[in-house]
Amino acid sequence: MRKLSVLFSAAALLAAQAVAQSVTPVSLEDGTPVRLRTVDTISSADAHTDDRVNFEVVDDVKVGNTILIQHGTTAIGTVTQAQPKGRMGKGGKLNVNIDSTKTITGEKVALRGVKDMQGGDHTGAMIGTAIVFWPAAPLFLFMHGKDITVPKGHEFTVYTSGSVTSDATKLAVATQSGPTGANPAAVSTASLAVSSIPTGAEISVDGAFVGSTPSSVPVSMGNHTISVKKTGYNSWDRTIRVSGGTVSVAAELTRPSRASR
């Protein structure tokens, strides 16, 4: 009888520990990298101050094996300065703040341009045709001499600004049903490594723009229609079955034949 009592107590303790673990909040630490891509071309030629700019999260952001920010989630930016190029070689100006994205349970995640805010390091790096200046805020575009243009599908990295804590129970529910406004089937179980000759072509998967070549695209298992397009070339279209892992897709684009006169 004593032995049964001990076994029952041990089982109850393990069950209590499992419950405690299941409700332990999951925290996304300050300075966690988040890879983004531009959804549309951004240019100082037609942008205006206070314009909203949408970006897209490229990869799932995880804590352990738990997804907190799902790929495909929208990130929001704001144009803080926009001036087209002028006469006499006066260049355009374009400043864009990367503001925030959200977790799969809907919590706002503030973003910034540098990993470590300490030390006041004013460093710069190249993003396409623009110079990245990171004094403090996620201000990432500033260039003189001509209109600044960042192409659709351009990828870059920002970082979480402050930690974000999500309820484990809500995360479990969101993981099963998918985040608000998202397709549950979009949870990635495989990826497409898409390249093209020439590079810089737009990639669409099942009709949705996902980036520019070369690029790695997370997808669910099953059949997917891949389209690779570049101005001045014929569209490359294929239907590919994905069963897991990474599938390499190489598109060799051809120019249209000249119509006979």
How would you summarize what this structure contains?
By secondary structure, the protein is mainly beta.
Describe this structure in words.
The protein is mainly beta and 261 residues long. It folds into two domains: 26-177, Beta Barrel (Lipocalin), CATH 2.40.128; 188-252, Immunoglobulin-like (Sandwich), CATH 2.60.40. The protein has two helices and 21 strands. The strands form seven sheets. The chain has a six-stranded antiparallel beta barrel. Strands 17-16-19-20 form a four-stranded antiparallel β-sheet, with no helix packed on it. A three-stranded mixed β-sheet has the order 18-15-21, with no helix packed on it. The longest helix has 21 residues, at 2-22. The chain is flat.
Tag the structure with descriptive keywords:
261 residues, mainly beta, Lipocalin, Immunoglobulin-like, 4-stranded antiparallel sheet, 2 helices, 12% helix
The CATH architecture name of the largest domain reads Beta Barrel
CATH topology call of the largest domain:
Lipocalin
Quickly count the helices.
2
Globally, the shape reads flat
Tally the beta strands.
Answer: 21
Number of structurally distinct domains: 2
Largest sheet: 6 strands, antiparallel, barrel
Helix content: 10-25%
- Which class of the largest domain in CATH terms? Mainly Beta
Alpha carbon gap, first and last residue = 100 Å
Strand order of the largest sheet: 2-4-7-8-9-13
Oligomer designation: single chain
Return the string of H and E elements.
HEEEEEEEEEEEEEEHEEEEEEE
pLDDT averaged over residues: 74
| Percent of sequence in beta strands | 35-45%
Structural class: mainly beta
Q: Radius of gyration, Cα only, in angstroms?
A: 23 Å
